[in-house]
Structures are given as C-alpha cells and as structure tokens.
Write a structure and sequence with these properties.
This protein is α/β, with parallel strands linked by helices. Helix content is 31%, strand content 28%.
Amino acid sequence: MPVEGAQPFCLREHFADGAASRDVDRLLIEEAPVAIEINGVGYAVMMATPTELEDYALGFCLSEQLIASPDEFVSADAFAVDAGGWMLRVQLAASGAGPLLERARLRLSEGSCGLCGIESLEQVMRPLAPVTSRLEVEPAAMFRAAEALSDGQVLGRATRAAHAAALCAADGTILLVREDVGRHNALDKLLGAAARAGLSVAGHFIVLTARCSFELVQKAVIAQVPLLVTISAASTLAIDQARAHGLRLVSLARRDSLLEA
C-alpha cells in the first residue's frame, strides 16, 4: 500500500551469520530540499519530507516569529521543481514584511555553521516571552500519550526513519500527529496543523519522538506550549532554556519512567 512521504527502493541485505545476501524492497522516507520563498524573498532552504507543506509553511512562519498569529498568514503554494526539490511560496500579510526583511538580512551574514557572527548569535539566543499558559497534566497522561503515539506514526512504521510530533489533550488523548524526516520540521508541521484546525497549543501538550534540543524548546516557548514531552534525552541548553522561560519539560519518556527537568 502506498504511503505518502515514502518511496520503494531495492536494497541489498547482508547477514552477520554468513547467510546468502538477497535483494529486498524497502520503503524509504523522502528527503528533499524545500526552498521557502516568503513574499517574494528567498528565505531558507530546508531538508524536509515534502508532505503537508501548507501546515509546515504556517508553523515555520510562526516559529520564526515572522507572524504573530495565523491571521497574518495568507497562502502557501508548494510544487516540485526540475532541480529535484520543492518550492514553497508563502504569502504573508503586509504586517509580516518588516520581520521578514530583517531576518532575511541576518541570514545573508550567516556562515556555513549557521551561527557565525555576533549579530547572528544574539539572534539565536534572543530573549523570548516566558510561557504563561498552564495545563495540569499527570504523569499517567504523559505515559498514555507516549504509548499511543506509535498508532499515529504511519510514515514512521513504514520507514523506521520519521520523527513525529503529537498534540495531546490534558488526559493524554492524541488529537493531531505530523511526521517528517527532521524533528524540527515535524514540530513546525504540527504547530501549523493545530493553527489551521483552530486548536490552541496553550491548552494542550506536545509529545516528540526526538531528543530535546535547544531549538525544539525555543519553538515550544514561542508557541506558548505549557508542556513538552520528548521520548529521548534533553540537552543541557534545552533544560536551561526551558527553566528560564517557564516551559515544563519532560524527557526520556518510557513506558515505566520519565524525567522532569
């Protein structure tokens, strides 16, 4: 059965016990360059799974703080290009033009590491508004959501290579799931999907399959997510930033235990 975001490949399988090698057909996750053009300005090229790109566009613009609300998002048009990637043309309301041009200017000064230059570093570590939303979530609900997440990972089950982000109610019920080859992209897709569905992330919590890095905490803080739960471990900077901005952060969520920062 076809799976959106995956393609069949013939691979050669070898065995440690000396058994004869064989050809096997496997579904592999799609990864492609996605050029993001916003209001006619080339903004970024991201490596992503080219599915649910309208969700991605909206979530990306919210995470980048190019817009303050989904009302400022006008449209997104995604199409494949001959070079082997995708073009994602986004139109924002005029109010987003100022932040867009300033961020695009800063990106031009960034080096290959992505963080070169004092001005760029200041932007990365810029202070953010603290999380003011609060949601009472018991550990049992976190365990329930983490356990149920696999049911919504269609691409993950097919390829074993997709990250997933899930929006959950306080009791652990999963409402939305988005997947991508990149954990940041999966979160942006989820934030965009929630906004398009009219679901406030401030009244829900998010579960991620990924390790918890600084960038994921930053996106959650910007979105005013009250609780972020990750299946893998958190970095030192992720915990520091979560504590500094009032984000409740849980990592290494397993069937029998979890760690709260």
